Amino acid sequence: MSHIQDCGLTIRHASRRGRSLGINAVFGSAGTASAALVAGALTDLIDWRAAFIVPGIATLAIALVFAVIVPAEAPNIHARAAGAERTTARAALGSMRLFIALCLVLMGGSVIYNAMTMGLPKIFAERLAEGGELVDVASMVTVVYVAASAAQLLGGYLADRASHRMVLIRAYVALLPVLLFTTTAAGTPLVLAAIAVLSLVMAVQPSVDSMIAQHAPPEWRSTAYGLRFVVSLTSSSAAVPLVGLIFDSTGGFTWVFITLAGFAVLVLLAALFVPVRRGASIAARAMPGAAE
User: Fold this and answer.
1) Among 279, 124, 93, which Cα is nearest to 190's?
2) CB burial class (10 A; 0-12, 13-18, 19+) of residue 241?
3) Are 196 and 203 in contact (CB under 8 A)?
4) Percent helix, strand, coil in the chain (nearest 5)?
5) Distance, CA of 225 to CA of 216 (rounded, Å)
6) At what angle do helices 17-45 and 134-149 cross, to 10 degrees?
7) pTM for this structure?
């Protein structure tokens, strides 16, 4: 639910949607990247219960601060500004082609992202660490995620200035050879390839979220983002047994990466059916009152 509210508030108040979504995504990725290190440190310094209690207390404290400093909004505060785009947005959202295309884009990207998230420690342990300490593997995985998360800022910049569909297509065209290279990569090339894969997948997130903001009716945007996260999380969970099945059947990660390349092709094909729209902030700068 927090992710849905984050996107809704970000879209509603952003003057530049892509940039704002990129910054929001960077902080989300930073949380994911630091989770293992924070949990491990708390467990070592205190005990395993602290890994749950301390983040829980921190979350409650942040929620209280948020409730105090963020003013309440009237439910229909943006209805007048959104009225001009409502008819077009409803027609776009009602297009079955667009709905299926976005679902396939979300599904393919989520499978690739979660497969990499789950598989990287094992991949690095086999091809990089060569029997080294687990802390070295964990540290390298964190480095990869921190480096890749910065791509979301570039993705946000592009989402404000370029066709969302072209950002998506070009990123996944570049992703295909990198995934195929990763099938046999080891050492430093493997680390760089992992950064490239995650950077390309993360970089398109602001464009995909901007597409939803553009095509969904303003009064249904939170619901649209709810559906977006349902599709993403469902697909992400499917990546876990998929990677395990392929690894157990083949004894390695080569066919895992080939399969992920197949999902990248699926995203590319789906992206061809997404309408060509430029970044929302271009119109917002021309008409300051139009941005939400």
Assistant:
1) 124
2) exposed
3) no
4) 85, 0, 15
5) 9
6) 160
7) 0.70
Q: How many CB atoms lie within 10 A of CB 267?
A: 25
The residues near 206 (Cβ < 8 Å, ≥ 6 apart) are: 17, 18, 19, 21, 22, 25, 152, 155, 156, 158, 159
Quick one: CA torsion of 243, 173, 150, 164, rounded to 10 degrees?
Answer: -110
**Residue 101 is which amino acid?**
A
Asked if 249 and 118 touch (Cβ cutoff 8 Å), the reply is no
Under DSSP, is residue 217 helix (H, G, I), strand (E, B) or coil?
Answer: coil
Residue type, 70: V
> In which residue are the tokens 């597409």 written?
211
Give the dihedral of Cα atoms 262, 164, 198, 107; nearest 10 deg.
Answer: -50
Which token pair is 167? Answer: 């950002």
From first to last of the 292 residues of the chain, give the pLDDT tens digit.
444 445 556 555 555 555 566 566 666 666 666 666 677 778 878 888 888 888 889 889 988 988 888 766 655 444 444 444 444 545 544 456 777 888 888 888 889 988 888 888 788 877 775 555 555 677 777 788 888 888 888 877 787 777 888 888 999 999 999 999 988 888 888 889 999 999 998 888 888 887 777 766 666 667 777 777 788 778 878 888 888 898 888 888 889 899 999 999 999 998 888 776 544 433 343 333 333 3
